[in-house]
Amino acid sequence: MDFPVKISKSPAYTLIPLILGLAAWYILYIFLAPGAELITNLIFRDTAGTRLSEAVRFFIFEVPKVMMLLVLIIFLVGIIRSYFSPERTRKMLGGRSLFAGNVLASALGVVTPFCSCSAIPLFLGFVESGVPLGVTFSFLIAAPMINEVAVVLLFGLFGWKTALIYVSTGLFIAIISGWIIGKLNMERWIEAWVKEAKFGEQEDTDMKMTLSVRVGYGLKAVREIVGKIWPYILLGIAVGAGVHGYVPENFMASLMGKSAWYSVPLAVLIGIPLYSNAAGIIPIVSVLIEKGASLGTALAFMMSVIGLSLPEVIILRKVLKLPLILTFVGVVGTGIMIVGFLFNLIF
What we know:
The protein has helices at 11-30, 32-43, 51-81, 86-93, 98-111, 119-128, 133-145, 148-158, 160-183, 192-196, 211-246, 249-256, 263-271, 278-290, 295-307, 310-316, 322-346. With 347 residues, the protein is an all-alpha fold. It folds into 2 domains: 11-83 and 208-230, no CATH class; 86-203 and 242-346, no CATH class. α3 runs antiparallel to α8, α14 (278-290) runs antiparallel to α15 and α15 packs antiparallel against α17 (322-346). The longest helix is centred in the middle third of the chain and has 36 residues, at 211-246.
């Protein structure tokens, strides 16, 4: 993990502009809704309330709202992540076993800066460090599935209760799935070259940094993450705006509503081969729920897209044999379906 190099400054020098920036963020945020309404009314003076005007209003409001929430949370999470490195994470998980290890690995997966593209180097490092297979999978499931982008979007579009449900159920799936895989003793399905390879010790970055350096790391995280995902956000919200304005409620209710018994497994089967991230899929899920899709079915679809992405499966195939890959997909997919059915039953 590369940290930005900054000259050490006094805490006051960093805190004052930080507080002013947060105040400006809050003031701008509370004026987003009336601003979007004003702009839409100016564009559609004589056609307010039409499908097109509602779609445009949705887009004008959601884009800055989501972007502002992302900037704030990614900045804060970036500061938290400055306390972690791949080597430190490996050391924290090394020697852990059974359920306690799965819980710790899942919790670390939420706050550490690793995604599906990091699957192979992380897996190799964990195996070399003696981290149990099930604990490793708990981490690999939680890291991409429960990330700050997903939490921010869910909070902004659905509210804190749905965001909390997502985090808690995602942790449950990561913990239980990793524990089950560990109990199955499937180490023999790891490719032989992985066990024989030696990767050496990685340098652990000094975590004794000043507040100024950690703030710099938070700003760097904003630049890198938002710079990569903003097209997905625009695309996802644009699709969501179209669905918001034009798709009839009855259509989505019949396909993904509670009354359709097949909706949850169908959502998971459709979601697994799709490739997207939270920035692209959650705005669409938001509108699906608005149009009649049940919460459990929508969550199952979203989790399968984010947590069982096809690229991650392809990458893991380089270090895992097919039976272990299929077990991973089967166990996690089953857990997602159970969550979907459960929330359809409760809500």
